[in-house]
UniProtKB/TrEMBL annotation:
Protein name per Swiss-Prot or TrEMBL: Peptidase S1 domain-containing protein
Signal peptide bounds: 1-18
Entry's family note: Belongs to the peptidase S1 family.
GO molecular function: serine-type endopeptidase activity
Gene Ontology terms describing biological process: proteolysis
Domain Peptidase S1: 28-186
Presence of the UniProt keyword Hydrolase in the record: yes
Domain of life: Eukaryota
InterPro entries: Peptidase_S1, Peptidase_S1_PA, Peptidase_S1_PA_chymotrypsin, Peptidase_S1A, Trypsin_dom, TRYPSIN_HIS
Gene3D superfamilies according to UniProt: Trypsin-like serine proteases
Phylogenetic classification of the source organism: Eukaryota, Metazoa, Ecdysozoa, Arthropoda, Hexapoda
UniProt cross-references to PROSITE patterns, sorted A to Z: TRYPSIN_DOM, TRYPSIN_HIS
Cited PANTHER family: PEPTIDASE S1 DOMAIN-CONTAINING PROTEIN (PTHR24276:SF95), POLYSERASE-RELATED (PTHR24276)
Length: 186
């Protein structure tokens, strides 16, 4: 199941984030609030100074020192040094979570750097200090390269639930069909 979530996240990450730049692009429509600990591999990414918080994108823990996210998250913010928050589902109360700064990022070399949701919209963030794994902070199980999934999976994000409302503070989740890239980009 974790592998299915990773595939959905990578394929449709551009549909589930809130950005400071331009109109809202992503939504978790008909979602429900995620329970604490339900998705311990999801992190909130902030492109601020760490003192005042503004959620800009989501990411997935793949290792104690590495976060997987979308390339457009870094291109649109124009920053490589961002902050991640792990172990929290409520961005208005991050008590008990782990905050980490990043020291560098790797954006896929074939990503066009134009902020689009094009193929290769993927990036890795390296953390200055490793995460401490516990019940609320865990890496996702990545799929094998040749694995293919169909059926349903879960999406997670802090994306808008309504175009006329601000993004929610609570992590949202919704079950969705797993789509191939050609379907997802429509």
């Amino acid at each position: 199941m974790k592998s299915i979530i990773a595939i959905i996240f990578l394929a449709c990450v551009t549909l589930a984030f809130a950005s400071k730049i331009g109109p809202p692009k992503g939504r978790i429509v008909n979602g429900v609030e995620a329970k604490v600990g339900q998705a311990p591999y999801i992190v909130s990414i902030s492109d601020d100074d760490g003192e005042s918080y503004y959620h800009s994108c989501g990411g997935i823990i793949i290792d104690k020192e590495w976060i997987l996210t979308a390339g457009h998250c870094l291109i649109e913010s124009g920053k490589v040094r961002v902050f991640i928050y792990a172990g929290v589902t409520d961005n208005s109360n991050r008590t008990g979570g782990q905050e980490r700064a990043t020291d560098y990022a790797i954006i896929h070399p074939k990503y066009p750097n134009d902020g689009s949701s094009a193929p290769y919209d993927i990036a890795l963030l390296h953390l200055e200090k490793p995460l401490e794994f516990n019940e609320l902070v865990k890496p996702i199980a990545l799929p094998y390269p040749a694995e293919f999934f169909s059926g349903k999976g879960k999406l997670y994000g802090w994306g808008r639930t309504d175009l006329n409302q601000p993004s929610p503070n609570i992590l949202q989740t919704v079950e969705s069909d797993i789509l191939e890239y050609e379907e997802c980009k429509l």
